[in-house]
């Protein structure tokens, strides 16, 4: 697993501002110097945008609502990054964008560990009725060792 530097930047694209002076809020994902941008679908007046804080200025309801929306986007991106890493993907900016929009099909599938855990739950129900305790515990222990091995490999790279 390759370690990656990952950052999120919110900005407004003033060149696309409408007559009402509202510019679209966009998002730039950067992973290992590779960039990918997309629109959040929200607009804000240029004078109400704080570049350094990457959020809307003010305490009114609209500003708080927009800022909460941006925080939600950021949280979902971090969640998608964790899911991709758990599944063994090498993170790229475009892959992260696609995962955000749920376009990565393999994220909808079960991981190998999920299949193992489901198997072990089924085996636990059968202990004493076709499956010995020892067989069940060997399965549980093997999965635990495999997870630890994968985690150690991820930390080394």
Describe this structure in words.
- Helix content is 46%, strand content 21%.
- α1 crosses α2 (93-100) and α3 runs antiparallel to α4 (133-156).
- It has helices at 61-86, 93-100, 112-125, 133-156, and strands spanning 6-12, 22-31, 34-45, 49-50, 55-56.
- It starts with 5 loop residues before the first strand and ends with a helix.
- The mean pLDDT is 86.
- The protein is elongated and about 75 Å long.
- By secondary structure, the protein is an alpha+beta fold.
- It has 2 domains: 6-106, no CATH class; 112-156.
- A 3-stranded antiparallel sheet has the order 1-2-3, covered by helices on one side. The protein has a two-stranded antiparallel sheet with strand order 4-5.
Give the SSE layout:
Layout: E1 6-12, E2 22-31, E3 34-45, E4 49-50, E5 55-56, H1 61-86, H2 93-100, H3 112-125, H4 133-156
Major sheet: arrangement of strands: 1-2-3
Q: How many domains is the backbone divided into?
A: 2
Helix content: 40-55%
How would you sum up the global shape? Answer: elongated
N-to-C series of helices and strands: EEEEEHHHH
Unreliable residue stretches? none
Q: What do the pLDDT scores average to?
A: 86
Structural class: alpha+beta
Instruction: Summarize the biggest pleated sheet.
Output: 3 strands, antiparallel
Core attributes:
4 helices; 5 strands; alpha+beta; 3-stranded antiparallel sheet; 2 domains; two-stranded antiparallel sheet
Summarize the structure.
This protein is of the alpha+beta class and 157 residues long.
